[in-house]
Amino acid sequence: MHTVMNRLKLYIQLTRLDKPIGIVLLLWPTLGALWLASNGLPDWRLLLIFTVGTVLMRSAGCAINDFADRDFDKHVKRTAQRPLTSGRLAAWEAVALAAVLALISFALILPLNALTKELSIAAVLIAASYPYFKRFFAIPQAYLGIAFGFGIPMAFAAVQNAVPAFAWILLVANILWAIAYDTEYAMVDRDDDLKIGIKTSAITFGRFDVVAVMLCYLISGGIVAWVGWQYGLRMWFLGGLLVAAGCALYHYTLIRERDRMRCFAAFRHNNWLGAAVFAGIALNFGFL
User: Is the pTM higher than 0.70?
Assistant: First the structure.
């Protein structure tokens, strides 16, 4: 029993279930899309499917990411003791676990329409290929934004059996938001990433990293504001955006000196930024 519990603990660490920040960064935009697609009245079954699916797919993505980066992570202070890198789990276990989680996630959407299933296949391919983009793509955070935001078009597809232009525009906003928060994350590991040759937006932006982060916040927020306005969202929605803007300004105070731990704190605080935007959407529909 002790061995089983130790193994389970390692699997939890591998899938980052002990660090749920990544789950909520996927979940807030997905929930916002569900509310918009359903005019504020999402089916509880869709809420359950997309919430559980988000947890499963994020966990699968973490396992694949650690598999792909297992030889790089040993050179990074923050990741050197991860289960694969430290040798406590075998590489095949990460692949097997990711496959099982992805299959369970796909099983969840079997009752949904064909378009949602087709988009889910694209989502899996994007999530699985993301870790390899760091080998050659100068701003892999943009690709991460697609992976983290693909719940947006899937949510619209599940509700409307179509993906309107607004869904793709919101995906663009999510890409910019992901560049912002994951650049903050990458600023923590910049020195190690430079040594091992991993490409990140923090390295690509160089001394303009803080400016780039704030511009991404600004443009992303502007896009979300415009889309919400087109949907007729007003007071509560704008209030949520003001809170989100306050979060972004707070992040500036954390990252401007480029201190590792403060940059990591800024990254984690994006949970509240995403929550504020979603709360504005949900409350606006609730009080219309």
Answer: yes
